[in-house]
Design a protein that fits this description.
Largest sheet of chain B: 5 strands, mixed
Radius of gyration of chain B: 32 Å
Oligomer: heterodimer
Helix content of chain A: under 10%
Largest sheet of chain A: 5 strands, mixed
Number of helices of chain A: 2
Number of strands of chain B: 59
Shape of chain B: flat
Structural class of chain B: mainly beta
Shape of chain A: globular
Strand content of chain A: over 45%
Strand order of the largest sheet of chain A: 1-23-22-21-20
Distance between the termini of chain A: 39 Å
Number of strands of chain A: 33
Helix content of chain B: under 10%
Distance between the termini of chain B: 96 Å
Largest interface: A-B, 59 and 69 residues
Strand content of chain B: over 45%
Strand order of the largest sheet of chain B: 48-49-50-51-55
Chain lengths: ~400, ~675
């Protein structure tokens, strides 16, 4: 199945009782999904915002977000009073070096949050913070430019070593025991691994490799690669699990022959464990992977530069950040069609985290240069932006923390 | 159900050495069950190469074994490796390790049901004891430091063992409480030491000291604090002849000037006879050998190095943090400076500093970055290179500018190939840019045609966990600062090792224990001809909030590289309550940025030894307060550069500053 993404300017969000939004002007994505030169700046800011028209929730929703160019992690709340920056924690290694907090993860038991510190000497680190006090309580050195993370119930943290240093060499996924904050394994995967998400039963970890066009599946018990898939457009195929570089098996010509690349930047398995969705940042597609057959089930055409994505816990909606298009795509997974492309006020939307009740999406927006980072709140029912909070520069990694009802948490 | 069978493979383990107790861990609920995990053995004592398999047993709340799977992880894989599914543990090297056993739930996911198994891996057996510090002959009346070292196979040291040296006859050679040996009378003794059941010994002869007197002299008996004086001492026999092999021990007695109330420790002398005082006063240096002692008196005056600092001007940057600077003479003969910005919007500012009392911003450029950490200008003042971090495209790299007219700076080209992780520091030398790649290495990029930059070489260390923070190039030698690997000298065109930009060749290096080497500056002492590299730390554990002033730590390390193959750290400049950042040397003066401690100017003339700060070598300091700074009234000095008799420096919170130093008038 091949689904189309409507061109720039199409009407995109017209849920009953809520305001509609116009899709952003089409833009050209560059390496890693950024808008091409000349398209940056206030493109999104000049558009009329949809925000704040839908009612705010009666409960408080909390997310934790990293500001990569500010060395900060912020706690953002969205509730009866709209969006609010609750707390900001300085993170990193040296005050006067930009250490680059990139990924955020929260213990399943809600006791700690973790932030990956991209720049080290040269290896990055994962820092553990007590969620009640926001005090750092542990650190582990991992690989080069650690980025996305996921934590199991059993306290194993998986972090991809993105290695954005530019060398076309295979990198790895580090495994950290969170109790001792010691790295217990580095699992070689492929070049520029990004995204780290667990299957619902936590026995598998999925990540993709931007440079190698690969989807990689790890067994979280044996800490070994179990399956690989080459994601080159129209040449998708299973690779031997031992292949670190697709070119080693497919040859350089296969890669170069591709008119376009997938450039995968994210993968997220579905709640029922049957599918996984891969963001192809280079060619404006999301691939639906049949995990049983390890084949492509559907291809969705998206907005420019799909970057991160998440699936509502009820399995109904897929929310995608269009990093190259300053918008957030919302797909109906049953119908396989885009319901909306909601513009962001600033450019370079990055991460997305969805509330457990499937009602709201929280999107980090990097911004450009001196612009602040932003967290935008999306009403997934009315498909509209309902709140925005500015925070430190280059808002990136985002993780949902909790819903607070009245005086208690849930 | 038992998972795995206890078995011994490889070299057999003595089970008696294994603590056989079974550890229990009450674990939180996994799935619907309350589970406990036992692992047998509960702890392990292994030797290198030993293998033993752990048994993981899951029990329910009633103590009944239940179906389940246990996986194992090692927290110190260099000490003990473990097969994650079979539980087989292998001793890799001596030390303490830990195996974590985790129970998987019914659905296969890891649970919080876990237990730790502590592992001790014995070091390889000691094969011999080596002794060091034993001269050909010991003489009575002297004290000797003899060190015993336990050695295992392949000449490897056992770092866990510290064998104590014993004497067979304490009336001849007696160990003191510190372990040093005092020669009391003539005779032959056996020195011995043992470790791990292996004993080593060596026979030593102690002769009656023929020394009857010591000749001692100083080249000069009057000096200033900080001046290093060499004390010559010669042990003499009864006929006045020098005694070869007789050691000299130096000591110093201080009588600081009576203007000092409750004086601190005020001088030091090395056992090579090099003396330096921190405070003025009268010092008596004693030289002893075999019971004979002589002394020499030294009169030390205050250094009186201080000069007057006069503020000339400021180019305020109040809307962002400021990073590095470069001051240069432009093509038009006027003087200019370029400064970077930090954590902002990717700007670099150009200033006319011809009249430092009126610093004028003449142009700026903005690139896709949050931080322009470093700025450098070519020797001819035509080309500048600025670094990029935090680019929205995540391409980072560097930008080459035409600064022939600093009033109309133009971007010539960008270069980011394999520099996408971020460029933190750059340097321009002889048509090439030396650019750091995400702290991993530095790339060497030819910019002879600035419109067509292309990489011609790169240098990266091979040490485990290596990292580089800065690079400075002078006379064809690149001096990089490499955190725990210290200062590394590389021939990139000097010729000493045949290096070129496309073929950089390692020359020498020096590392120090703090592992905090952040910047380096080479200089040849104008007064002594010695060649030094000053290595600066960056340590700021107390600094977490950019909105609050904070105190950094660390100091400047003076490394004597006169003998390139044998560098020695000889002195330090350490400012209490402040820490180092960037530095510059011109003539025999050090200009150093000390973050919250401001900019410092230090007299580094003559021989260098000890703590230059405490010796009164500081010429000036200036704390730049600006009520309209990005963070008001919070000095945070980033980098200094002297230029045409004035001192320019950047402040993290307030931009570019210029001061002038003038000697103090003599008090009539």
């Amino acid at each position: 199945m091949f689904l189309s993404w409507r061109p720039a300017g199409a009407l995109i969000a017209c849920a009953a009782g809520a305001a509609c939004a116009s899709a952003p002007a089409g833009s050209i994505s560059t390496e890693d999904g950024a808008p091409a030169a000349g398209q940056r700046g206030n493109q999104a800011a000049s558009q009329s915002a949809t925000a704040e028209t839908a009612p705010w929730p009666t409960d408080n929703y909390y997310v934790v977000v990293a500001a990569e160019s500010q060395d900060e992690v912020s706690v953002v709340r969205f509730g009866p009073d709209g969006g609010q920056l609750v707390e900001t924690v300085g993170v990193g290694l040296w005050l006067t070096e930009t250490d680059g907090p990139h990924g955020i993860a929260i213990d399943p038991d809600g006791s700690h949050w973790y932030v990956s510190i991209a720049h080290g000497t040269p290896f990055g680190q994962v820092h553990r913070y007590d969620i009640a006090t926001h005090e750092r309580v542990g650190a582990a050195e991992v690989g080069l430019f650690p980025a996305s993370m996921a934590v199991t119930d059993g306290g194993l943290l998986f972090v991809v070593n993105f290695n954005l240093h530019g060398d076309p060499v295979p990198s790895s996924v580090s495994v950290v025991d969170t109790e001792s904050m010691q790295e217990i394994a580095q699992i070689p995967t492929c070049a520029m691994p990004h995204g780290a998400r667990l299957s619902a039963n936590q026995t598998r970890l999925y990540s993709v490799c931007v440079r190698d066009e690969q989807l990689v599946e790890l067994d979280t018990r044996s800490l070994a690669v179990t399956r690989r898939m080459y994601l080159g457009p129209d040449a998708e195929q299973e690779l031997d699990a031992s292949i670190l570089e697709a070119r080693a098996e497919l040859g350089t010509n296969t890669m170069e022959a591709m008119a376009t690349r997938c450039g995968p930047t994210w993968v997220h398995p579905s709640p029922d464990g049957r599918r996984a969705y891969v963001a192809c940042n280079k060619n404006r597609k999301v691939l639906e992977i049949d995990l049983d057959g390890w084949t492509i089930a559907r291809r969705f055409e998206t907005g420019p530069g799909p970057y991160n994505l998440d699936i509502t816990p009820d399995g109904g909606k897929l929310v995608i950040t269009y990093k190259g298009g300053a918008a957030i795509g919302v797909f109906d997974l049953d119908a396989g069609r885009e319901l909306a492309a909601i513009p962001t006020r600033r450019t370079l939307p990055h991460g997305v985290a969805l509330s457990p009740d499937s009602k709201y999406g929280f999107v980090s927006v990097e911004g450009v240069g001196g612009e602040p980072g932003t967290v935008e709140m999306i009403d997934l029912t009315n498909l509209a932006t309902v709140g925005r909070v500015d925070m430190g520069k280059q808002a990136g990694g985002i993780s949902f923390w909790k819903i607070e009802i009245g005086s208690g948490d849930r | 159900m038992q998972i795995g069978n206890q078995q011994l493979t490889g070299r057999m383990v003595t089970l008696a050495a294994v603590v056989a107790a079974v550890a229990l861990l009450s674990a939180p609920a996994a799935s619907a069950q309350d589970l406990e995990l036992e692992v047998q053995p509960a702890s392990l004592d292994l030797s290198v190469g030993d293998k033993i398999t752990l048994n993981g047993i899951l029990k329910d709340a009633d103590g009944n074994e239940v179906e389940g799977t246990v996986v194992f992880f090692s927290t110190k894989r260099r000490v003990a490796a473990v097969n994650r599914t079979s539980g087989e543990v292998e001793g890799i090297s001596g030390g303490e390790g830990r195996i974590i056993a985790v129970a998987l739930g019914e659905d296969g996911r890891a649970t919080r049901v876990r237990i730790n198994v502590e592992v001790t891996v014995a070091w390889p057996a000691v094969e011999r004891i080596d002794f060091a510090g034993i001269p050909d002959r010991m003489y009575t009346g002297n004290t000797y430091s003899v060190v015993a070292t336990a050695m295992s196979a392949n000449d490897k040291t056992r770092p866990d063992l510290d064998p104590m040296v014993r004497s067979s006859d304490r009336s001849v050679l007696a160990p003191s409480v510190t372990g040093r040996l005092k020669a009391l009378q003539a005779g032959t003794v056996t020195l011995s030491a043992d470790a791990d059941g292996i004993e080593g010994s060596v026979s030593v002869e102690v002769a009656t000291s023929p020394v009857r007197s010591v000749s001692v002299s100083a080249a000069q008996d009057r000096a200033r604090t900080g001046d290093v004086l060499t004390i010559e001492a010669t042990p003499l026999d009864g006929d006045g002849n020098a005694v070869a092999g007789a050691p000299i021990s130096f000591a110093v007695q201080a009588a600081p000037t009576d203007t000092l109330i409750a004086p601190p420790a005020s001088a030091q002398i090395s056992q090579a006879g090099r003396f330096v005082a921190e405070k003025p006063g009268v010092y008596t240096v004693f030289a002893s050998s075999g019971g004979a002692t002589s002394s020499v008196e030294l009169q030390i005056e205050g250094r009186e190095a201080a000069e007057i600092v006069k503020l000339l001007g400021q180019g305020r940057v109040g809307e962002s943090h400021t990073s590095d600077l470069w001051v240069f003479e432009g093509v038009d003969g006027r003087d200019y400076a370029v400064t970077g910005t930090w954590g902002a919007e990717g700007k670099a500012y150009f200033w006319d500093v011809t009249d430092p009392t009126t610093i004028v911003k003449v142009d700026s450029v903005q690139v896709d970055a949050r931080t322009v950490n470093d700025v450098k200008v070519s020797e001819d003042g035509r080309i500048a290179v600025i670094s990029r971090e935090g680019a929205s495209s995540r391409r980072n790299g560097l930008v080459i500018l035409d600064v022939s007219d600093p009033h109309a700076v133009e971007i010539v080209s960008e270069y980011d190939d394999e520099l996408t992780g971020g460029v933190h520091n750059v340097f321009i030398h002889a048509g090439h840019v030396y650019a750091l790649s995400a702290g991993q290495r530095y790339d060497i990029i030819n910019i002879e045609d600035p419109t067509n930059p292309h990489r011609v070489g790169r240098f990266e260390l091979e040490t485990p966990g290596h990292s580089v923070h800065d690079v400075w190039v002078e006379d064809g030698v690149a001096y990089s600062s490499n955190w725990s690997d210290g200062v590394v000298l590389v021939d990139v065109g000097n010729g000493i090792k045949g290096g070129t930009p496309s073929n950089p060749v390692f020359i020498s290096s020096y590392a120090y224990p703090s592992g905090a080497n952040h910047a380096a500056f080479p200089f040849r002492s104008q007064s002594t001809g010695k060649f030094y590299v000053i290595a600066g730390d960056e340590i700021m554990p107390q600094c977490r909030d950019l909105n609050k002033p904070c105190a950094a730590e660390g100091y400047m390390h003076f490394i004597d590289f006169t003998d390139l193959e044998n560098p020695k750290e000889v002195a330090r400049y350490e400012v209490p309550g402040a820490g180092t950042h960037n530095l510059w040397v011109e003539g025999d003066r050090l200009y150093a940025a000390f973050y919250n401690g401001g900019v410092r100017v230090v007299d580094i003339s003559g021989e260098l030894m000890g703590d230059l700060f405490r010796q009164g070598r500081e010429i000036a300091q200036y704390l730049a307060y600006d009520g309209e700074g990005f963070l008001p009234n919070a000095p945070m000095t980033w980098g200094p550069q002297p230029h045409k008799g004035n001192l320019f420096f950047t402040e993290f919170n307030s931009g570019l500053w210029a001061v002038q130093l003038t000697p103090k008038d003599l008090v009539p």
